[in-house]
Predict the structure.
Amino acid sequence: MAVILVTGGAGYIGSHACKALAAAGHTPVTYDNLRNGWRDAVQFGPLEEGDLLDTERLIEVMKEHKPEAVMHFAALIEVGVSVSEPDAFWRNNVSGTLSLLDAMVATGVRKIVFSSTCAVNGDQDGVMLDESSGFAPASPYAASKFAVEHMLHDYGVAFGIRHLAFRYFNVAGADDQARIGEHHRPETHLIPLILDAIEGKREALSVFGQDYPTRDGTCVRDYVHVEDLADAHIKGLAYLDKDTRVPVLTLGTGEGFTVREVMQAAAEATGKPVPAFDAPRRAGDPASLVCGSKLAAQELGWTPDRSNLKRMIEDAYRWHQQGHYDA
Ligand SMILES: NC(=O)c1ccc[n+]([C@@H]2O[C@H](COP(=O)([O-])OP(=O)(O)OC[C@H]3O[C@@H](n4cnc5c(N)ncnc54)[C@H](O)[C@@H]3O)[C@@H](O)[C@H]2O)c1
C-alpha cells in the first residue's frame, strides 16, 4: 500500500479520491492551499497546506511523505472567470503544474494522474466525444488543461514521468454517508444550484436558453458520479505500472440530460418543486456536451455504474441536508 499525494484533496473531487484511496488501503496526503477547498473535507489522511506554485514547499512535503504517485486535482475551475482572469488561470493551472512536475523530478516521484476536461475538445456540435475527438479549447480554463496535457507528454519523454490524463465533464453526487460532498465557492454547478433553489438558500434557478436543438430546448450535459470518478483514479494508479498505456482517457456515460430533465429528477427525488425562471442563452454554452468511456472500459475495466441521475441527485441531496463544512 502506498502514500499518494493528492493536490486539491480539500476540494470536491479530490476529497472523494482521498476517501477511495483510504478505502483501497493507501494513505492520501492532501496538498492544498485551501483557497477553494475545505479543511473539514480532509478526513482520510493528513493535510499539508501549501500552494502549487511553491516548489520548495512541494519538495519538502514529497521528501517527508515519499509519495509513490501524485493525483493532481488542484486547479482554478470556473470557465467564466477564466475568460476575465486568464492570467490567474495560466499561472495557477499551468505554472502551478510546472512547479509540481519539477518537484516530482527533483524528488524522484514518477507517476501522476491528472484531471483534465472534455472542454479541451470544445463544442463539437453534439457529437459524442472520445479520445480521438479534435481539439478546440474555447476558454482559458480549457486551454490551461490542454497545455498541461502537453506538458505531461514532454516530462514523460524527458524525465520518465508516467502519466494519465482523465477528461470528463460534469461531476455530481456525494459520499454515500454524506461526510463529504460538493461545495464550490462560488457554486456554479447545476445540481447544487437546483438543491439550493429548492431549499430557498438562493433565488430561483435561471434556465439559460430554451431554444437549443435538444429534446426540450435546454442544454444537454453528461454527468458522472463523483465516486465513479474516484474509482477511475484508483484504477488509473495501477494502470501507470503497465508498460503499454494510452496517455488520455475520457470518462463519461455517453448519455446526456437536459437542464429540465435534471430539474424534474430533482423535484422527484426531493418531493419539492424547483423554483426556476427562463433566461436568455449564455454566450459560449454549447447545446450538447457528452463523452463516452469505451476506451476506459477497455484499458481500466472502468464503467460508470453509479452514474444514474436519480442516484446522483439523491446522494447530493443527502449531503445537502446533512453535511456541511464550517472551515
Ligand atoms: N467539478 C467538475 O465537474 C469537473 C469537471 C471536469 C474537470 N474537473 C477538474 O477536476 C479538478 C477538481 O475539481 P473540483 O470540482 O474538485 O474543484 P474544487 O475547486 O472543489 O477543488 C480544487 C482544489 O484545488 C485547490 N487549489 C487550487 N489551486 C491551488 C494551488 N495553486 N495550490 C494548492 N491548492 C490549490 C483548491 O483550494 C481546491 O481545494 C479540477 O482540476 C477541475 O478542473 C472538474
Notes: The mean pLDDT is 95. The pocket of nicotinamide-adenine-dinucleotide is lined by residues 8, 10-14, 32-37, 51-53, 73-77, 92, 96, 115, 117, 168, 170-171, 184 (CB under 6 Å). The chain has two domains: 3-172+223-251, 190-221+254-322.
